[in-house]
Amino acid sequence: MNAPEVAPVVKRLTQAQIARYADAADDHNPVHVDEAFARATPFGGTIAHGMLTLASIGEMMAAAFGERWLSEGKLRVRFRAPARPGDDVTAGATAQSPRDGSWVYSVECKNQRGELLISGTAEVPAGG
Amino acid sequence: MAVPARTIVFDLPQGHEFPKTSFTLSSAGLASYLAAVEDTNAIYRERGIAPPLAVAARAIRSLLDATELPAGTLHTGQEIESRRACPVDAPLTFSGRIAQRSLRAGLVISVIEFSIAAADGETLLTGRTTVLAPGAAS
User: Fold this and answer.
1) Which of A11, A88, A103, A123 has the fewest CB atoms inside 10 Å of its own CB, making it the most exposed?
2) Is there a contact between A62 and B43 if contact means CB atoms under 8 Å apart?
3) ipTM of the modeled complex
4) What is the pLDDT of residues A89-110, one digit of tens each?
């Protein structure tokens, strides 16, 4: 059985959202929340936590597979570039050949300029 | 051996095991996380379970209770494997170790393997976090 389509997730990233995530994850690294500090780094401004950007991929897979994803899913990604406030981040999944009883997807996050922010694979046990 | 407070992660050798720590992802904490990532999926509230990435983020935070990531640290990779849904408002135990530590072109790369277990000892989730520090001590 072919892997089902997975609907993409699109979000506008804001500095306020980054601040909320910093509080929720208790990660206040200044590169995320201090504009003056971040401007002096090679990034030239604040960037989102990688795990915040990655959450869109988790949301996308949970929406598609529900508890099967939450209890048996596998995710392996590389952070390629940072997302920044004002970015429109699109999480997407492309089905690959099934493997060992699992549906396999290549997953990614891109910004509005088509720049690759995150890439990797996600697997979930095949089901009906 | 206990890790002194604020040890730099990149100074820890391959094979170093972090002290086990216990934590609870509360309903309020999960609500804050879901609001921050703008995930409105009702399954978490209805089933009393947490997104694996929320638990992983909490696990990574546990590392920072005893260690420090220096300024300039980059989170370059993340792996998560779920074995059972992670419950909310239940005690969880974090275990972690430095699985790999390497030097490359002036960069220190550390790979931290971790697992999250339920109160009954069953592993709920495993993961690998890769962090890189430019110009860190060798």
Assistant:
1) A88
2) yes
3) 0.95
4) 999 999 999 999 999 999 999 9
